[in-house]
Amino acid sequence: MLTTVASCGGSGAAKKAEAFSAAILEPSSLMPANYSEIYGAQVVSALFTPLVTFDIKTNQTELKVAESIESADNKVWKVKLKPGWKFHNGEAVTSRSFVDAWNFAVNKKSAQLNAYVFGEIKGYPDVVSGAQQTMSGLRVVDDQNFEITLVRPWSQFKQLLGYPAFSPLPSVAYQDPKGFEQKPIGNGPFAIEGIWQHDQQITLRRYDPYPDAKAKAKEVQFKIYQSFDTAYNDLLAGNLDVLPAVPTARITEAKSQLGDRFQESPSGRMEYLGFPLDSDKFKSAGVRRAISMAIDRAAITKAIFQGTRTPATGYVPPVVPGAPKDACGATCVHDASAAKAAFDEAGGIPGNTFTIGYNSDAPENKEWVEAAAGQISKDLGVNVQTKAYPKLAVLLGDLGSGKVDSAFRTAWTFYFPSPENYLKPLFTQNAGENFSGYKNDKFEALLRDGAAAPSPESANATYAEAEQVLLHDMPYVPLWYQGVMVGHSKRVSDVSVDSFRRLRVESVVAN
Amino acid sequence: MPRYVISRVLQAVLVLVGATLVIFILTFALPGDPVQALAGERAADPAFAEAIRARYHLDEPLLQQYGRFLLGVVQGDLGETYSGQDVAQMLSERMWVSGQLALFALAFQIIIGIGAGVVSALRRNGVADAGVRLFTLAGLSIPFFVTAFVLQLVVGVKLGWLPVAGAESGFLSYVMPGFVLGSLSTAYVARLTRGQLTEALREDYVRMATSKGLTRVRVVAFHALRNSLIPVVTFLGLEVGALLSGAVITESIFNLPGMGQAMARAVYLGERTTVVGVVTVFVLIYVVANLVVDLLYAVLDPRIRYA
């Protein structure tokens, strides 16, 4: 009995030549402008290719569908497309494929989650409100050329175009968006096979007429898991080829069980301790810097995160081109006596007590928040409490409505590789992610200068200055940069994950 | 009998309306804004939030939303999930997965549970009895998710006898999760059967049957066991409900795309339509299971009849 079971179990996962499987969690959406997490991004990036992408090592911008993207003033951007690009249904990729897709993404009726990333294009407010159907800043010149006009100069716009929300859509997408979402037709290296089988799998087949570098494997099966703990077991049992995020709790065993089939790479995600700056407790920048110095980042990343996170040395992770080195200096390094001195000099915290809020639905939050609270209590002589929120949505909701009087755990992942993307969305006045309520005119003036800068180098220099302003004010304490831990089977090689934490499916070689 | 069935069905409708209304109200009390849950780690854009609220009628008063839901149910429309799937269609696909899982669990409970109970009662204080009591004690005291992880690692990963997770291996996919889901109650069924049967074997009517010269098998199977099974059937009927809630965890651990899994995520995302849709199905199953139990009483004990 058991032998028959064994043989059936082994052959259960059909192993096709040049095909491999990769674990994901259920994506929130497969529409380029509508997903909210990395697994949607993962599948969307295999199905669609935008105007530009980023080099996996350097994160430098590379032209893909675009032949050139130019602007004399950082405000009007001229895009010329390469010839020969087609969607998987044979439709040619033209200027319309982009312009219509972007208008669709912003249109109120489409209710696309990532519509806001088009916010700098002229005419955005009219389309998002439903008053207009098309953004006035988008102009089709001919099939291969179109123009984008922004509301203000923005030197980083070319990078933004690599965000998957800027992918083109074929005309069939608008006829039945719901149906399209279950079986998207893109212009990427892989085409969908069948439909999105929710909570089970999404199978993609290599698209052979792809005009850029073709994918190496013929087929990729994204197996959808509820938890990567189960996926890790499946990897050990030989039913899964790539696990792009080994759970932290299993890293030690993964290192010994997988050997060189376990690898780590840095990502663009980082975590912070944030403060509501309106609160009496946190209005002193000196206090905030003292708290930063009281946190032993090295000890926490080693003990709790098993070395998979790196202590932060500024607001911009090193994977971003143009990131300054060690911008934070001593303020981000643990020093109990300096911290205590700075804390006392700044006048301390009223009541000598404060709370750190965190969401308990993510694995390690509780551990590190409690560890940090303990360190701060000990070094500064204050009473630091912790408060668990059941879900991130609850904490973010409370923060958004200004109900929180406690420090809070928060995180950010870039959507394009520029220092600006770590500064503007989080710390400019009224920005959606500005949970601390930070406002500094000098900082914002520097960001505007960077946006108007004539060259990438001068832009980055200005952003570095802006980062210094921020480090002095410290609305958030930068904590650590997150790494990605990938495990894979013996059947595959050339497994790499980019700093957006996406597996580069096109480069995986399967036997 | 038909009148009895009709009144039970009418009762079921009332229970259904009541239960869905309660769940509907409760989903409003779920912490966190569902629109924010959709947006993940970023703050939801106000324009997006407004559009989603309008699309899913989240901006309407509670009773109006409930009325809309009931109207939909009558037309066979349970609404759609936030990822654009039709809830009714999604549930019909998942019901098949959860149904197979529950059948496996029930089968384990009936075959192993009642079987072990009978063996134990007949060989009281023997080696077999001691063995059954030891295993049932273990079954009752070890949380079933622990059993799940251990089996997954040993039988799935180390020995490779059964698939670790997923539904793609068909029949085999359900053996381990079905066993895990059924394990706790299997132990309980075994103990219940043992106790009931032990008692029944001491009754006069059993001794009478034996003295009439009936075979041991006939006495046990048709006289003693039949009477002993009434509490066991009651338990198994109620168990259907427990199986559904246990499925939430089992389906997650074994990555089975069933209703329990859909429920878990829907609660997390605050997806009202899905939560209420799944609960509607749960309540229906529960009501039907109870009806079946009541009708089985009549079969097991002819003295119980429904006019």
Automatic annotation (TrEMBL), chain A:
* CDD domains the UniProt entry points to: PBP2_NikA_DppA_OppA_like (cd00995)
Q: Which GO terms describe its biological process?
A: peptide transport
Stored Pfam families: SBP_bac_5
GO CC, any one term: ATP-binding cassette (ABC) transporter complex
The Gene Ontology terms for molecular function here are: peptide transmembrane transporter activity
Q: Which residues form the Solute-binding protein family domain?
A: 64-432
InterPro entries in the record, alphabetically?
Peptide/Ni-bd, SBP_5, SBP_5_dom
UniProt name for this protein: Peptide/nickel transport system substrate-binding protein/oligopeptide transport system substrate-binding protein
Which organism is this protein's natural source? Streptosporangium album
Q: What taxonomic classification does the UniProt entry list for its organism?
A: Bacteria, Bacillati, Actinomycetota, Actinomycetes, Streptosporangiales
Automatic annotation (TrEMBL), chain B:
Q: Which residues cross the membrane?
A: 12-30, 101-122, 134-159, 171-190, 232-254, 274-300
The ABC transmembrane type-1 domain extends over 95-297
Q: Where mainly located?
A: membrane
The record's listing under Pfam families reads: BPD_transp_1, BPD_transp_1_N
Swiss-Prot/TrEMBL keywords: Cell membrane, Membrane, Transmembrane, Transmembrane helix, Transport
Keyword Cell membrane attributed:
yes
Record GO biological process: transmembrane transport
Question: Does the record bear Isomerase in its keywords?
Answer: no
- What InterPro entries does the annotation carry? BPD_transp_1_N (IPR045621), MetI-like (IPR000515), MetI-like_sf (IPR035906)
User: How does the entry describe its membrane topology?
Assistant: Multi-pass membrane protein
* GO cellular component annotations of the record: plasma membrane
Kindly list the places in or outside the cell where this protein is found, as annotated in its UniProt entry. Cell membrane
Family from the record: Belongs to the binding-protein-dependent transport system permease family.
PANTHER family assigned: DIPEPTIDE TRANSPORT SYSTEM PERMEASE PROTEIN DPPB-RELATED, DIPEPTIDE-TRANSPORT INTEGRAL MEMBRANE PROTEIN ABC TRANSPORTER DPPB-RELATED
- State the protein's name: Peptide/nickel transport system permease protein/oligopeptide transport system permease protein
What's the source species' lineage?
Answer: Bacteria, Bacillati, Actinomycetota, Actinomycetes, Streptosporangiales
